[in-house]
Amino acid sequence: MSAVYDRVALIGLGLIAGSMGLAMRQHGLAGEIVGTARSAETRDVAVGLGLCDRVTETAAEAVKDADLVVLAVPVGAMEDVAREIGPYLKPGATVTDVGSVKKHVIDAVSPYLPEGVDFVAGHPLAGTEHSGPHAGFATLFVNRWCLLIPTEGARPEAVARLRALWEGMGAKVDEMDPEHHDLVLAVTSHAPHLIAYTMVGVADDLRRVTDTEVINYSAAGFRDFTRIAASDPTMWRDVFLTNKDATLEILGRFTEELFALQRAIRTGDGQQLFDYFTRTRAIRRGIIEAGQDTEAPDFGRGTTRE
Ligand code: NAP
Question: How does 64-103 read in b/e, with b if 16+ C-beta sit within 10 Å?
Fold first, then answer.
């Protein structure tokens, strides 16, 4: 495949940027990949693992002459990075991000981008509970969706080019507006994560009563929760602080449904429980049919989250 961009700058070199670096190199999608991260340790590891061709100490240096700049830091750090790189962006460059929340990132980053730079926000719906430069792998985005959110004034050709990059890495691409993105992700990702964190927290409290039983006899459902609840604390703190309204809306609905099921259990309404579980089973079948997961009860699976 021929290069989509001559020079790509990766700001942040963790799971997502690292996977992008490996995928771009594997498919020859970038002439040169320059990377930067907060710590010297991550920068050294990234070069050692071949996530990028070279690293710079600062984000300002990394974006010099870059045709595409990818912001791949926690959502709460996007504004500081944008402030730093704004004056050094090449005219005609495209800036994108991979943050899990879109409206907040667009509002935080846009004011620092000069005219003549296209900002096309993005979110690959792919991830694992692992983080850092060692966590990346080239096939992370294969057959996963990447949502693009072009901001006002972004040129269609800049959007098309970014789409070509994601497709080159194996992703399926769709466009969405930021509010809709944040609501959809609150349902499919953010609220489920909070519920998993809560369930594991409850079990941890119980552990003090039951000693090691929760761990030794942990059943499939609980193990799946623990995998999700092992996700990066910084990333998820930022997600909840910046997608507040949509997450609270979904959690409100969740609580109502939970109360309804609680009442069905208390009153012995087996029909209600049966009907409810039949409906949810069909959703699972839909996900498998759409190729977004497999039937395998694979708790070590690598590419399940966003
Ligand atoms: P990660 O593995 O933890 O990597 C984060 C990178 O950002 C590291 O290189 C880190 O540098 C750097 N960084 C952290 N704080 C910084 C700061 N204040 N200033 C500058 N650099 C900073 O994270 P990730 O999982 O790749 O996530 C990156 C972004 O992708 C997040 O916005 C997240 O919401 C989004 N996302 C994540 C997933 C997922 O499942 N993990 C999926 C889709 C999208 P050091 O290593 O030197 O600290």
Answer: eebbbbbbbbbbbbbbebbebbbebbbeebbbbbbbbbbb
Residue 110 domain-assigned?
Answer: yes
Ligand 1 pocket test: pick from 228, 235, 237 the residue with the most ligand atoms within 8 Å of its Cβ: 235
Q: Residue 302's pLDDT is what? A: 46
Burial class of 261 by CB neighbour count within 10 A (0 to 12, 13 to 18, 19+):
middle
Number of domains comprising the chain: 2
Same domain, 236 and 99: no
**pLDDT (tens digit per residue) in 190-214:** 999 999 999 999 888 877 666 677 7
Does residue 300 lie in a domain region? no
Could you tell me the distance, in angstroms and rounded to a whole number, from the CA of residue 74 to the centre of ligand 1?
Answer: 5
Strand order in the sheet with 145-150: 54-55, 30-36, 5-11, 68-71, 94-97, 118-124, 145-150, 172-175
- 200: containing domain: 180-268
Q: Does a structural domain hold residue 236?
A: yes
